[in-house]
Amino acid sequence: MDKDLIKELADYVHNAEKEKQEIIKITTERYPELSIEEAYLVQEELVQQKLDAGYKIIGPKMGITSEAKMKQMDVDDPIYGYVFDNMVVNEGDTISISDYIHPKVEPEIGFILDRDLEGPNVTALDVLRATEYVFPAIEIIDSRYENFNFTLPDVIADNTSAAGAVFGTNLKRPESLELDVVGVTLSINGKVESLGAGAAVLEHPANSIARLANMLSKKGEKVKAGQPILSGGITAAVRLAPGDFVNAKYGGLGDVSFFVKE
Ligand code: OOG
Ligand code: MG
């Protein structure tokens, strides 16, 4: 795959994000043979374009780490992408639906490490020993592809649909909780739309961060201390509409919420 094609595909997805205009997925006809390795090259180019535009990486995110997400999206392998500074939504804030294409939300458990983790042999135990805090979070995803329809390479090239992140401020030490049995409800306007427990994410959310460290090591990168890291949606994602009050409430980990307007 030559540099021109990588750039062309990154431009294609990046323009859709900037113009909030959905596009036909890459593998439909632009480049049906896009492999997972190539898709990460497109993602790297997209990330570089954002950095060149002055945006900053806040932290990495894992995706497709639960059965619920695999079933909903019809893809079946964990992937990673990046949350940028312009995607961060403060707890209690209001977002405009018009800033997105067709946004959805999913509840996630966030991690902050106090030391870097470098693969390839990182385990969940290593992650827990390196975790300073865990916190409640909501990810806003907004696939740039028509109808949220994509293959694994397509969604990797699209920075794993990253569009927004609400990081809760209720920080807890990891040893104060059993993250696999922490339950969560995702409610819209007071009605529970989805629910699950931490174990939905690769049996324990720490496995997801270990997987991230091991995947990043393939390109010589580490999971860095101090960054908020999203471990992946616990439940299927739920579509947003103007007027929504979105709340994710966790057992022992508090809650996080925000509003949606036109
Ligand atoms: C891809 C992003 C998946 C997660 O937590 O599973 C993701 C998508 O569903 O559009 O962020
Ligand atoms: Mg997610």
Model description:
Helix content is 25%, strand content 29%. The chain has a 5-stranded mixed sheet with strand order 3-12-11-7-8, with no helix packed on it. Strands 4, 5, 6, 9 and 10 form a 5-stranded antiparallel sheet that branches. A two-stranded antiparallel sheet has the order 1-2. It is globular. The termini are far apart. The site of magnesium ion has 9 residues, from β1, β4 and β5.
CATH class: Alpha Beta
Q: Say how many strands there are.
A: 12
Strand order, main sheet: write it out. Answer: 3-12-11-7-8
The CATH topology annotation reads as Fumarylacetoacetate hydrolase, domain 2
CATH architecture: Alpha-Beta Complex
What is the strand content?
Answer: 25-35%
Span between N and C termini?
Answer: 41 Å
What is the typical, i.e. mean, pLDDT? 97
Gross geometry: globular
How many domains, as an integer? 1
Please write the string of helix (H) and strand (E) elements.
HHEHEEEHEHEEEHEEEE
Unreliable spans are: none
- Biggest pleated-sheet summary: 5 strands, mixed
CATH superfamily: Fumarylacetoacetase-like, C-terminal domain
What are the bound molecules?
2-oxoadipic acid, magnesium ion
